[in-house]
Amino acid sequence: MRLVLWDTDGDFGTQIFDTVYVTGASAAIIVSDVTRPQTVTRMVELVRGFEARFPGRPYKALLNKIDLPEAAGSASAIGELAKSSVKSVSAKTGAGIAESFAELAQTIRRRQL
Predict the structure, then answer these.
(1) Which run of H or of E encompasses 97?
(2) What are the b/e assignments for 61-89, b being 16+ CB within 10 Å?
(3) On the CB side of 37, how many CA atoms lie within 13 Å of its CA?
(4) Please, what are the domains in the chain?
(5) What does 24-59 look like in DSSP terms, one character per residue?
(6) What is the pLDDT of residue 22?
(7) Strand ranges across the sheet with 28-33
(8) I want to staple 62 with a disulfide (CB 3.0 to 4.6 A). Which of 6, 31, 41, 48 is the partner?
(9) Spatial contact of 109 and 1, defined as CB atoms under 8 Å apart
């Protein structure tokens, strides 16, 4: 399966996210830096916006940088997000990355999105 990814810094308006980045999206991967709580909060906002715009569409909310000691306990903002869609990962070590993409790709294929 070919996946097209947009890598943004998250510092953009919700309007741009809704109209440019997710228009026509089959799924989303939204990443935060667990050592920076404001990015976790922003990730939650973006996930909720994606859920509202595309009800039932799959997504993965990735809590990145779990390899760092500062990561412990800093992801409390995820709150009510579906726990099955939230995964702790490390881009540096690769922990959880391949699995997250594979799970999302399988969901897209299964749902024929």
Answers:
(1) helix 97-111
(2) bbbbbbeeeebeebbebbeebeeebbbbb
(3) 8
(4) 14-111 (3.40.50.300)
(5) T-S-EEEEEETTSHHHHHHHHHHHHHHHHHSTT--E
(6) 72
(7) 28-33, 59-64, 86-88
(8) 31
(9) yes
